[in-house]
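Researcher: Next sequence.
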Amino acid sequence: MKIKYYIIALLGVLVISCQEKTRKLPYYKSSDFVPVWNTPETESFHKIRPFDLIDQEGKAFSELNLDGKITIVDFFFTSCPGICPKMTNSMTKIQEEFKNDNQIQLVSHSVTPDKDSVSVMAAYAKKNNIQYSKWKLLTGDKEEIYNLGRKFYFVEEDLGENNDSSIFLHTENFVLIDENRLIRGIYNSLDPSSMQALIEDIKVLEKE
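Model: Next structure:
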């Protein structure tokens, strides 16, 4: 009887293991986030465009820094008294979960770059124990940041795609980007279950 239960348990483990290995994440190419399951040709599929911004140490950060990495992206501002501290807390948990994994990086864009200078971002990073090797805080041209957020990361989903930089960009969403700069998921950073789903999806993406 014990042998029978052992075999059943072993089969269960094998089934779960196979499911984890075969699960794939969809792709997203529009702000309505309708999943696309066929493998895209990166040249014609929606892809994060070239850009030039600056991180919390004053170093250049561009689309080339996304290539070959799995990236979790959000948009925030350092003086935000509302959802941003909660978003930072969620991102901190992701930082801790993948602290020894060099394939994973976190990128937070300031939506008030006129106020969030390099020195302000550096102070914010220090206050919140943000590890520079893992997590970049980006500032730069406002038009660039807002265009990236709305037109390329779709961070406000379809509600904000047609807005311009005169309309404040503010969202709790995190976006998951693969090593080819393609969107693979969007998550509510204020929802613990959504954050757990993000962690699991990152692990699935690493196995592709």
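Model: The longest strand covers residues 70-76. The radius of gyration is 19 Å.
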